[in-house]
Design goal:
37% helix; Multidrug-efflux Transporter 1 Regulator Bmrr, Chain A; 9 helices; 8 strands; elongated; 298 residues
């Protein structure tokens, strides 16, 4: 079962890579690709990034830059025209991006007769990559993560909605705390603080990202003004624990989705993915923060 499941996810990612390679100058309908893979766009983007090491948009951008570098070396076309072909609106924007990748300007690069145009990429996909040629799936030890499968009951969550960059969600937690503080909810045994993330940060503008700072509350409890309500569906969930700074959670999620899930023999389910915080920065140093990550399974 495990090889077949891994193959399922690898084939979904491979189809997306082939589409990018074959249509480098066209906008990709990633929602359609996600649907074909039987995943939500949110889960699909996390799966792709975890397996490839880049988002679909980052992959396309890098391949266009590699193509541009070849064009810079191969002919004397104006740099401005090459910049337009690489989807940059101005010569200046292209030059800034080119310098970040190649540590020199396009004109300086042109003087290097034997410059290397490939940009390091663990997945092995570069400009000129043939459609159907396999990528190298990321393997940083994620398939050996310590993961537990749990049957979870439905959870009622009192929430404060945050719209904006995910790293600013502490503002919503602060507001949540002020609203419920007089209820004594935070002091009850077993209280769970959770965060629900609704949009993929790799494909959604930061100012449009939606998330909820939440607190699991009992059924029947009246919610104070200013709080919304979300439901975490009952079902099977895979969970792993991260000990350390919140800044490392993005990479943990990438390994969880892109390495552990494909190797596990499990399929993603329809429920939400979420985080549970077992302590807070007000209680312990960053290195001792404990966060449980949950992925819905079919």
């Amino acid at each position: 079962m495990k090889p077949a499941t891994r193959s399922f996810y690898e084939e979904a990612v491979q189809r997306t890579i082939d589409a990018i390679v074959a249509n480098l100058d066209e906008a990709l309908d990633l929602d359609t690709l996600a649907s074909a893979a039987g995943m939500s766009p949110y889960h699909f983007h996390r799966m792709f990034r975890g397996m490839v090491g880049e988002t679909p948009l980052e992959l396309a951008r890098r391949l266009r830059m590699e193509r541009a570098a070849r064009q810079v070396l191969a002919n004397d076309r104006p740099i401005t025209q090459i910049a337009f072909d690489a989807a940059y609106e101005t010569h200046e924007a292209f030059t800034r991006a080119f310098r970040l990748w190649y540590r020199t300007s396009p004109s300086g690069f042109r003087l290097r007769a034997h410059a290397r145009t490939e940009i390091p990429a663990a997945c092995g996909v570069h400009f000129g990559h043939a459609v159907g040629q396999s990528f190298v799936a990321r393997d940083s030890g994620g398939r050996d993560m310590t993961v537990e499968i749990k049957q979870m009951p439905e959870m009622r969550v009192a929430t404060v909605r945050h719209v904006g960059p995910y790293n600013l969600i502490p503002q919503a937690f602060e507001k949540l705390g002020k609203i419920v503080d007089h209820l004594g909810v935070f002091t009850r045994p077993g209280v769970q603080m959770v965060a629900l993330y609704h949009d993929d940060p790799d494909s959604t503008p930061p100012e449009q990202l939606r998330s909820d700072a939440g607190l699991v509350v009992p059924e029947g409890m009246a919610l104070p003004d200013g709080l919304g309500e979300e439901r975490i569906p009952a079902g099977r969930y895979a969970t792993t624990t991260h000990v350390g700074p919140y800044e490392q959670l993005g990479d943990v999620w990438a390994r969880f989705f892109g390495e552990w899930v494909p190797a596990s023999g499990h399929r993603l389910g329809p429920g939400v993915s979420f985080e549970v915080y077992r302590n807070t920065p007000a209680e312990v140093p960053k290195k001792d923060l404990i966060t449980d990550l949950f992925i819905s399974l079919a």
